[in-house]
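re: the backbone from monday

yeah here it is again, tokenized this time
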């Protein structure tokens, strides 16, 4: 029943969203929408400042029989237990906890006891009505024991985006689960009491394991925070650079994109990587890395989305009355559906440059982080060249309020193809949010994109002087 209430609410939220027509460009971002109160939204996908708790909850979700004799996922353990909550906070927690089992077992209800099961790591994102986001990092595993048994999911819920770091934490959880559940919770308590590290910094967690003694577990956060929940190698293992470029072209115009794969981990990693190609912009629409079987009708949503669906549901997806969509088969490395104009979206010259710069999986000389930076910078340079002149087209009044001059902005480019692209791109919600932030303060934050922008402007200056 709880799952049905979440499904009903989510479908209604999509209907309300689609009824606003063109106004969606200026509305708050949504993924899997929960009616929850919390902090104000941020432009970035996930909060990234140090000082946060590592996580809000650890929940264990297991397959249990309900009163009808059917099997369904249920939370069997929650750490920490929240007590003395006010009414609004209690309602918020209840809604969150009702949604989690649906996303921990998105495959449906046809589960049977197993004797062997390869553990999987995946994640999901829940968005509150105020735009704030909660991320669930999941490890689905077969508990130790004899005979056939159901898998269970250990899900760490928080508001901080760092897939690689939490994957390492889940490795530690799984290692302890094979010994005893009692060994997990002291480790998680120590983690919860530790401050979330700043980019590039490391925290050390002490944890006692019977027969092994006290272990010191080092958790390091990547220096480049915009890449800390990304694994581009997963995307390039499934798709050619040309296909990735066409996905980027579709995403940059905020179209509907569906990824198909059998493994939850592949879906989760690839959809996070695809969204990260948009940096310094943020995907601001429906975003579900792994769509539960009960929410497959989401593909009928008329507004932009980025969805991950298990390939076993392909026939059901194709039977849905979908509008224009890019359907990506990660298993076969091909597109099953296209709008048809994907190759014409980006300026041809820049497309060729990006293809020549994108690394391939045959390049074994790079570490994972170096590979991520190389891929990301290919797309960052695209935005530097296309929109790097935007500060010159913001007029400032005496009160320090900026006003973006859209027409002069896209006319400033000499290339006809580039102007054609920019005319479409400036109408997207991601660009609107980016410019709104730029208009709010003349003193821009010196982030990674701004650094690349400054480098590019300096290179242009040197070329003019030489």
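seq for it, each position gets an aa:
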């Amino acid at each position: 029943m709880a799952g049905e209430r979440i499904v009903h609410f989510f479908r209604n939220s999509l209907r309300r969203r689609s009824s606003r027509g063109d106004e969606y460009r200026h509305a708050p971002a949504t993924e899997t929408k929960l009616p929850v109160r919390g902090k104000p939204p941020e432009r970035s996908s996930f909060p990234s400042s140090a000082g946060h708790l590592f996580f809000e909850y650890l929940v264990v979700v297991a397959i249990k029989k309900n009163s009808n004799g059917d099997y369904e996922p249920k939370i069997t353990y929650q750490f920490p237990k929240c007590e003395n909550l006010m009414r609004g906070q209690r309602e918020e927690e209840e809604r969150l906890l009702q949604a989690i089992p649906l996303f921990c077992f998105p495959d449906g209800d046809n589960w049977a006891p197993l004797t062997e099961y390869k553990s999987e790591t995946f994640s999901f994102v829940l968005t509150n009505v105020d735009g704030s986001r909660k991320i669930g990092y999941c490890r689905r595993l077969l508990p130790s024991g004899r005979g056939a048994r159901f898998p269970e999911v250990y899900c760490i819920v928080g508001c901080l985006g760092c897939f690689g770091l939490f994957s390492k934490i889940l490795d530690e959880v799984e290692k302890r689960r094979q010994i005893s559940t009692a060994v997990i919770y002291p480790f998680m308590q120590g983690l919860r009491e530790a401050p979330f590290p700043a980019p590039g910094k490391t925290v050390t967690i002490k944890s006692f394991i019977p027969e092994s003694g006290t272990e010191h577990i080092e958790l390091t956060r990547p220096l480049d925070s915009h890449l800390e929940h990304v694994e581009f190698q997963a995307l390039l293992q499934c798709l050619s650079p040309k296909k990735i470029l066409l996905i980027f072209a579709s995403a940059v115009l905020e179209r509907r994109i569906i990824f198909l794969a059998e493994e939850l981990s592949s879906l989760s990693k690839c959809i996070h990587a695809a969204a990260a190609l948009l940096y310094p912009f943020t995907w601001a629409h429906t975003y579900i890395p792994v769509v539960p079987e009960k929410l497959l009708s989401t593909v009928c949503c008329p507004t932009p989305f980025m969805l991950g669906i298990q390939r076993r549901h392909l026939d059901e997806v194709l039977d849905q009355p979908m509008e224009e969509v890019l359907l990506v088969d990660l298993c076969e490395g091909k597109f099953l559906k296209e709008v048809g104009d994907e190759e014409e979206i980006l300026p041809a010259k820049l497309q060729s440059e990006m293809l020549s710069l994108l690394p391939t999986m045959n390049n074994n000389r790079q570490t994972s982080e170096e590979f991520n930076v190389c891929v990301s910078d290919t797309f960052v340079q695209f935005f530097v060249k296309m929109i790097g002149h935007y500060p010159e087209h913001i007029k400032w009044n005496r009160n320090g309020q900026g006003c973006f001059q859209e027409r002069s902005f896209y006319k400033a480019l000499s290339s006809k193809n580039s102007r054609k692209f920019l005319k479409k791109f400036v109408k997207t919600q991601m660009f609107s949010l980016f410019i709104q932030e730029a208009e709010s303060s003349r003193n821009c934050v010196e982030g990674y994109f701004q650094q690349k922008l400054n480098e590019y402007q300096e290179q242009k200056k040197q070329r003019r002087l030489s």
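Confidence is low (pLDDT under 50) at residues 11-50. The chain has 14 helices and 15 strands.
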